[in-house]
């Protein structure tokens, strides 16, 4: 699609055990080249699943993923291997995702070796270069994952993801397993790499705090659907969907005296295998009315590059934020 990466994943019903879990349900989303797009939601919202569908790590039950104008479902195995090099993932837990019996040379060099018939010495040079790129030393190549800190292991995972010269990196909660002091370093590294290599980033996160300063757009997910999609500043300044408002109110306030009275968002998230009818958020929404239980709101396209799925977003927005609600 020229300057656009167009991904659409419609009706991805994942078969799990007996009941189908509608982890991602009829979602349409375009990832734009060069942007940082955040997928945000509680656990069970389908954000990781959507990310994996986009990368073709999972096959959609229905719907299509279009990458650079090509439907990934129609590609040959060989073409798909090439596309997979373009689309790489960084996992949440850097320790679990690295083979403990492989040294860093093998971990980082394996994708090069798989995709490239480069000579051994060239591969070693390339691994050394990748390690420097992510802020590690070439000498680290001989060591094993257990010899590194969590932040360093995440850097190794990033170096491995970069080895096949990807165009898009998906970070599945890339910093949530790390100490708070290390999180900012890894976020800064990802932003530097994005600039340096012209990457597109998709960041999966369960809260808004981490992604606020690194995203261009945010897609808020609830029970397998995107309920709001907006440029990051607009989303924080004027969240339109009640669920987005709740997520923003759950971000810790830095100045305690500004703290508004908070209302706890009632109830747990319903099971994705039996989502509520109508608006899926109605069981927890403080603004819910009878219509919300019956009719599913459309994902309405608004000016200013925003989309929202709520019957009453106009009234809610014009009435001000009302009583703030908090997701616990
Ligand atoms: Fe709340 Fe109704 Fe809007 Fe759903 S459609 S978010 S229940 S007001
Ligand atoms: Mg997850």
UniProtKB/TrEMBL annotation:
Under the heading PROSITE patterns, the entry gives:
ABC_TRANSPORTER_1 (PS00211), ABC_TRANSPORTER_2 (PS50893)
UniProt lists the family membership as follows: Belongs to the ABC transporter superfamily.
Q: Name one GO molecular function term.
A: ATP binding
* Keyword Transmembrane among record annotations: no
What PANTHER family does UniProt report for this protein, alphabetically? D,D-DIPEPTIDE TRANSPORT ATP-BINDING PROTEIN DDPF-RELATED (PTHR43776:SF7), TRANSPORT ATP-BINDING PROTEIN (PTHR43776)
Q: What name has this protein been given in UniProt? A: ATP-binding cassette domain-containing protein
What is the organism field in this record?
A: Stutzerimonas azotifigens
Any coiled-coil regions, as ranges: none
Span list, region Disordered: 256-278
**Family annotation (InterPro entries):** AAA+_ATPase, ABC_transp_ATP-bind, ABC_transporter-like_ATP-bd, ABC_transporter-like_CS, Oligopep_ABC_C, P-loop_NTPase
Keywords attached to this entry = ATP-binding, Nucleotide-binding, Transport
* Record-annotated ABC transporter domain positions: 1-248
